[in-house]
Amino acid sequence: MGGSIKSRYLSHVIACEGADFVCLQETKLKEITEAKCFFVWGNNRVGWLHNEGINGCGSLLSMWNVDAFSYSSHKMGKVFIAVFGIYLKTNCSCVMVNVYAACTINDKKILWEELSSVKSVSQEKVWCLCGDFNAVRSRSERKGIREGSAYSSEIIGFNSFIDANLLLDLPIVGKSYTWFKSNGSAKSRIDRVLVSEEWFVRWPMSKQYVQRREVSDHCALVVKSVEKDWGPKPFRTIDAWFLERGFNEMVKEKWISYPRKGNAMVNVKEKLKILKGDLKIWNKEVFGNVYTRKKEILQEIEDLDCMDCLNDLNEGDRLKRAALVSRLKENDKKIESLTCQKARSRWFKYGDSCTRFYHSSLRWRRLRNEVKGVEVGGQWCEEPCTVRSEAKKLFDSRFTATKDFGVRLDEVEFKSLSQEDNESLITAFSEEEIRDAVWLCDGTKSAGPDGFNMNFIKESWEALKDEVVQAMM
């Protein structure tokens, strides 16, 4: 930030993206003036915290829009700034951590321990850690850099830090690397944004967008949650619904009662649309929450067991308890079906099925695998209509038939049947062939290995053989 070129670039990015919070690493400044912050932010509605580092080296600057973020407190370490406050647009208490890790593995481990300690003692749930971590999560995130013994230790340690603190790596849009050596011989993804599972609950469409590399060897990262209208969602059902008694009959009655409109396809679409609304009501009023129902059934069983300890249950209570146990089994099947459909069934098998982190991981995986946009004419585009159009063009070009398939079968010898074999296959069955194909017992044993009376079989065959031969011929 010592020069005007980078300052103007930062001001441009902040203005274009409408940033609410900005984290800068390696400012190269011992002191940050009010005028400098106003110039970079574009106005005076900005708050900031500065970590000067060591003689300006490794310095950090966190800035925020005071109309969008209300500062509460902060925790400053040697290479990080953690800002606690409230995001006013959603009234959400959150923590924004600006990180600039050192290069040595020992210093990185110290940083991971400090951040873990700060997060563990905090009451805040919504966390965002961003900056230059100087570490990668896999070997594929570094190219052109010599690997050493500390390389594997770094990967293992960094992943352990992320997993231990229940953090998620935001899906990346754009380039796969964020740092490039000036001569182009090396590149890596050492800059990233890590968020807590609660962050994903608040902003499920969050992604990190890698900007163009203009004034630095690092690419700027912009985090934003962009929701696009991709049109009507497909009609889906829950497998556990079919385990509920009366579900099929209810659907049939509803479907018959719907009015018909237009042609067959329009009619099906409109009926599914109405059915979707009716299923939402039925799911809430009839099917209910299977987890809450399980707690209620277990409590009723526990009450009857307590009564049984004091006095013997009468016949009615015993029947009631048996019915509750049966209902509990049915409910457990619904829970298992629901969990297996929402996730991979092996997670349910090994017991990690209903944790919030698990479901946040599923949302993150789904978000990472989705089509986020396309590049058209060198410009990144996320508009649904454009994405659909480009996808159609791609498949049209890949699957368009041509007159010449480029395949030649000249001089290729295929196995074929001779004329004699062909005639033998279409010739009618002879009586001798039928007799050879049917198993006959000589009658020396009264019963076969399975206890059947062989004499009876032989006599039956003698009586029916002429009819069978005639029928088969």
Outline the fold blueprint.
Elements: H1 4-17, E1 21-25, H2 34-41, E2 46-51, E3 60-65, E4 69-76, E5 80-87, E6 92-100, H3 105-121, E7 126-132, E8 142-143, H4 149-164, E9 167-169, E10 172-173, E11 179-180, E12 187-188, E13 191-196, H5 197-202, E14 206-210, E15 221-225, H6 247-257, H7 264-287, H8 290-310, H9 315-342, H10 345-349, H11 356-369, E16 374-376, E17 379-381, H12 384-399, H13 419-426, H14 431-437, H15 454-472
Parallel strand pairs: 6-7, 10-14
Antiparallel strand pairs: 1-3, 2-3, 4-5, 5-6, 7-13, 8-12, 9-13, 11-12, 14-15, 16-17
What does this structure look like?
With 473 residues, the protein is α+β, with helices and mostly antiparallel strands. The protein has three domains: 4-225, Endonuclease/exonuclease/phosphatase (Deoxyribonuclease I, Chain A), CATH 3.60.10.10; 239-369, no CATH class; 426-472, no CATH class. It has 15 helices and 17 strands. It has helices at residues 4-17, 34-41, 105-121, 149-164, 197-202, 247-257, 264-287, 290-310, 315-342, 345-349, 356-369, 384-399, 419-426, 431-437, 454-472, and strands spanning 21-25, 46-51, 60-65, 69-76, 80-87, 92-100, 126-132, 142-143, 167-169, 172-173, 179-180, 187-188, 191-196, 206-210, 221-225, 374-376, 379-381. A six-stranded mixed beta sheet has the order 4-5-6-7-13-9. A three-stranded antiparallel beta sheet has the order 1-3-2, covered by helices on one side. Helix 3 packs parallel to helix 4 (149-164) and helix 8 (290-310) runs antiparallel to helix 9 (315-342). The termini are far apart. Residues 440-452 have low confidence and may be disordered.
